[in-house]
Amino acid sequence: MRSDITLKQIAAASGLSVSTVSRVLREQPGTSAAARRAVEVALGTLGVRHEDEARTSGTVIAVVHAAPIAGDVDPFESLHLEIVERIFALGWVAVCVQTGPDLASAAEVLESFGVAGAVVLGGGSAGPEAERLAALGVPVIRVSNAGHAGFAQLVLDSREGIRLAVRHLIHLGHRRIGLVVPEDSAASTRVGAFRRAMAEVLHIPATRDQAPVVVAGPGILAGSQAADELLEAQCSAAISCAPSITFGFLESTRRLRLSVPQDLSLLTVGDMPDAELVHPPMSQVTFDWAALAEAALRELERLMRADSRGQQTGGGSSGSTGESRGRSPQLPDYKVSPDLVLRASERALDRR
């Protein structure tokens, strides 16, 4: 099997877009039979083993993440793409599975593939699947916005991201800044970091009135409603912590005949697919997804080697509870700091 295959090469060979190829490989609903067949043929042409061969040979890596709720945007899409590309580059086989209330258990689906390891992205429904995979003896590494005890993990430092966003907007002269966070396991951490940063830099108590916060549900409509709340609170700048929230802000300002950044500076924290292509190009506090994917797979490979040595010395078995295999006693727990990428969605506040 060739080890230099990328999503762009598969797209070129299949005649499909990169995004369509990604959806097919991730087994997302809504892909056509023709697209799935085109990707299968392209993989064969490029020398990549198809699924039946992957069940019996090669190193199979599971990439597991929660399916976005209807109307939402996958906050781990960029990282997912980078991980899949790197799996191909390492000469491994990627099996991508989405989890959700109406979907089959990832562990049940993956058990027949004989997966050597798993990368679990985010929380929500992906969390219980990480538990099930570890119980089956599969080495697991998690990447998410919040820590999860008992797993090797890379934690995206949401607190530092919020602090970086607050300091930048205050540097531009904004004092009335609002925050919108998705209703997830990292919400309280983000809100606490926001209020502390506002208090430390502006020397204010940062009460709810002075530092408005909205916790939004899934979907662009919820983001738009959150934007309406912060605009009504007369915020001159806002920090969005999810792609759907950011798109909701853009929708709300257009509906109210306002402009970003002329009437509202907007900064998004975390991933936002094609942030440079929206209007206006979105400034971000984001992560180096390529480096993060490399680090996650490097650590997973280390766990897999430790697991293999444990099996050779009788230290683990597929019927274990996961303590000796999926959960090594030496579990790394890294915090990853973000970077500020400036584009055109924020500007200095006019002083009058």
UniProtKB/TrEMBL annotation:
Could you tell me the keywords of this UniProt record? DNA-binding, Transcription, Transcription regulation
Q: One Pfam family for this entry, by name?
A: LacI
Domain (HTH lacI-type): residue spans on this chain: 5-47
* Ranges for region Disordered: 305-352
The superkingdom listed in its UniProt entry is Bacteria
Task: Fetch the PROSITE patterns from UniProt.
Answer: HTH_LACI_2
Q: What is this protein called?
A: Substrate-binding domain-containing protein
Taxonomic placement: Bacteria, Bacillati, Actinomycetota, Actinomycetes, Micrococcales
